[in-house]
Amino acid sequence: MKKTLYLFLLFATKMLVAQNANIRIIPEPVKLTVQKGIFTITPKTALVVSDKGDLHAANFFNQYLKKYYHFQLQIKEHPTPGSITIHTKKFIKAPNNPEFYSFQSKPSGIDISGNSYAGSFYGIQTLIQLLPVNATANQLNIAAVNIEDQPRFTYRGMHLDVGRHFFSVDFIKEYIDLIALYKMNTFHWHLTEDQGWRIEIKQYPKLTSVGAYRNGTIIGHAPGTANDGLKYGDYYTQEQIKEVVQYAADRFITVIPEIEMPGHASAAIAAYPELSCFPDKNTPTPKNKNLWSGDTTGKQVQQSWGVFDDVFCPSDYTFHFLENVLDEIMELFPSKYIHIGGDECPKNYWKASPFCQQLMKEKGIKDEHELQSYFIQRIEKYINSKGRQIIGWDEILEGGLAPNATVMSWRGEKGGIEAAQQKHNVIMTPGAWCYFDHSPNKQEDSLTIGGYTPVQKVYSYEPVPKELSADEAKYVLGAQGNVWTEYMQYPTKVEYMILPRMSALSEVLWSPANKKNWNNFENKLIKDTKRYQLWQVHFNEKWNQNANSSN
Ligand code: ACM
Predict the structure, then answer these.
(1) What is the pTM of this model?
(2) What is the whole-number distance in angstroms between the Cα of residue 497 and the centre of ligand 1?
């Protein structure tokens, strides 16, 4: 009898452990309690949705099931026993955290209830994380749990540079799906660069017919060892942009477009040389002729990586151009924020330009940093007049911050600290933690920009700098992973560079700081990487070889 009881207890414990082993949710929920039993999803399980707004979440789940488990569920309007029910609360007064959801799975069914449609959508992401990774039959066992969950930060972003290398709409959608699966909510789309202008602007067709193409690309690490001599380029039509914005919105992701100014403007200048302070001056090309392909006269789209002197001239011609471009951008992107760049703008051309020097004299502008500030403030005024806000890289602090600007802190945390102290909103993207173009491994086999940012380092990030008071900390909206693609030519490389670092960042941004625990996370990542295999995405398989060698 005793032995039977012992065996039973052993069995029960094993079952519980096995069940718990399946409860590895990234990002870690705020409150999770394990209950007894399981719920089994089969093709007969109904998905109950009584409110059209919840169809986005239901459809996302069905698409996921279809893609990875080869069946989907019938969507029903009225409650039925043994179903998955999605229900978004309706409030007369806005709740404290609109992204909150509760999740309850028990043998008789699953209930997901969000404070908003986004909240319910996050409940679905939690359900996805509870699905077995290796499904062999149409029987998906979900552990019984009670979860109450909400994000720590309102801005949870991923960036992608499509200027250095272009990525298809299909890949952009895959990228957005990944963002959604980790309960992140912002896609920062870096659309214009020295090496290519990537968005159709109807009033300025040469931006894409000329600016979207370069005559070659350097080979190897900048400045390069040679040039491949291949014409390279592409761009998104406005129809494609609308499609992506809608696709993201269906996943509760805001797309923030970035139109770079006044620097990183070579491609626009190649299309419309009048945007330069020196329209007749040839684009300087490398002394080593092997590094350049094609014409060396006139204005050229850049073929190497770096920072270039020929930037937008702060002339009426340029402002008129930018306002027209921004009109089309604001029509395409409903986001509250428009990112206007502002980083890495050398001042050499402005210093040499009689026009700029005269303008500075007239306006009482004391140096070229202030001239950049004048530039950004003028653009901010225009964007504000259309009811939108600007985000700029932290260089926009130099020479005086535009009155309503949000600062993206990339050169460390200093810019973010200063901006928050000046009562400006801040998004943290400091290179040491948030630059996913850095090598993910100490011994990196692939070509990258350099650096070393293993997943553990990303996980260790605390977005609120300790220098800030509790009051100032409120200006930190969140953080973002930046993906600059000089050394990422193909989607597979982007996947490799973001996974699993993006999983780590999602937990930094969502979970309460006191819930963060590297050892737990490491265990969860082992399952997460199995999920990557299910998705057939590339990832850094050596992620845990570095685990104890960072910091
Ligand atoms: C940047 O990395 N230049 C913002």
Answers:
(1) 0.95
(2) 17
